[in-house]
Amino acid sequence: MLKYIIRRIIMMIPVMLGVTFVVFTMLYITPGDPAQTILGENATEETIAELREEMGLDRPFIIQYFDYVWKIVTKGDFGRSYTNQQPVINALIDRFPNTIILAVSSAAIAVILGLILGVVSAVKQYSIFDNFSMTLALIGLSMPNFWQGLLLMLLFSLKLGWFPVSGFTTWKHLILPALTVGTSSCAIIARMTRSSMLEVVRQDYVDSARAKGQKEYIVIIKHALRNAMIPIITAVGLQFGAMLGGSVITESVFSIPGIGKLMVDSIKARDYPSVQAGVLLIALSFCVVNLLVDLLYAATDPRMKSNIEGKA
Amino acid sequence: MSAVNNTATTRVQYKKRSQTKEIWRRFRKNKSSIIGMIIIAILIICAIFAENIAPYDPVKQDYAHTLEHPSKEHIFGTDEFGRDIFSRIIFGARTSLSVGLISVSISCIVGGVIGAISGYFGGRIDTFIMRCMDVFLAIPSILFNISIIAALGPGIVNMMIAVGVSNIPRYCRIMRASVLQIKNQEFIEAAKAGGALDFFIITFHVVPNSLAPIIVQATLNVGSAIIACAGLSFIGVGISPPTPEWGAMLSNGRDLLRNYSYITAFPGLAIMITVLSLNLMGDGLRDAFDPKLKR
Description:
The complex is a heterodimer. By secondary structure, chain A is mainly α. Chain A has 14 helices and no strands.
């Protein structure tokens, strides 16, 4: 198992190098000179040239790229922000926990609600509950989350006054954004759980568990759900990535000081090092989540475990 | 004897029915998909004939009628510049649908071609392409969109490119998977044996036979592309004012949310209904193309 984990971590390296390459290239080809951006409109040509040399912008592309990666790997140096000249890493450290808290709490809402809705819909297929929750899921899937955020804000903050409108200091600030980010993922997980459970629930071993006199909820949870879990875990893993991304817009709606808001503000201010760093950090988190998902497969399905151990 | 005759007749009738007709017959059975299709058809008509349907000019400011609640003159009310929200939503359908369709076409065509090449040739080409796609998939699509827009600059064309490019890996994978299923079938071998060029085989044999999953994915994806574009406009990096676009309209109304919630309600509803209809239609198409997948 340990071998497998190490192999997977090693496999992440080329992907992350690829991501840094894509992001670096994209922002390298961006029109506009960073030195000019930092110094402003009134800078003389000499000072711009000096700063370009100091920042290493006069070197060939590939050298700049490796230098960028090297600095990140060895010093955790993502460059300096063009707007306040502070190291980008400081802003990342300040804001990353907020994004993670938001994503994890949205994921918790999405997984718990999604599993319950999906399992009950499958067990009571074609019932009123099934139709109702699947319609709800379809609506949740079709609703843009920023609009939903605004609607929640209108109802619960502005009209009822139950939750604060913006900011991110207490648990009360977390509820509405987490609901906003979690809804569409909840819908996807509910649909996936339902279809995956429907395939399992009619199989013979489920009937034989019932015939043994097992209680219904044990049959459903232990015998059916566990076997239906693989596609559900895949969906959850993919959705966690989507939630990390989805928090970008929701953070703007609720003015949460997270990575997403940092990126949106940075784009408007043309502060590219911050954009780059934000994308890299989220992509890295996404890769780590995918690794954890693969490990979870092994924990839920012994067949996968032996397969993994066989390969490792 | 008559039973045998009956079977023979049914078989003859069955053969007469083309594949398209068969798909349409299965699609027609699904009422919600038909409703979705009708709504989309109405939206397309609105988009095409926006000038004739919209009662007012969508960008003309009228300071005598700012922030009017929905009434007979302005059924969805007016915004802070006195622009008629209903007219802006009608014109917004044009923007959103075209942005959705064009960006999905970009991802379909580019992703489809790359996926077909990857699946058909296999080997090192396949490994290289799929590793590149893994890299793109490691970046959540909204972030990918944002980085592309950061590189190219805000604007409608760049937004379509951004949303289109970020979905390429998805189509690439689907196309590759269906090409892998098809490429070892006998009719491909026959074409190869006949000396056909790879380009000819891919274009005329492999691609047409792998299209079904791509079409289904594209229908479902137009909705998410519309949401993605609206999201980008909402955070201020997509379509800039005064162009009527649903996401930008939502963004404009957020400061007036407390007292003039209708400004955000209608564009949001428009996005939701459009995406919902596309999802219903996509689900129906999926079941019609492949009844085995029916949920």
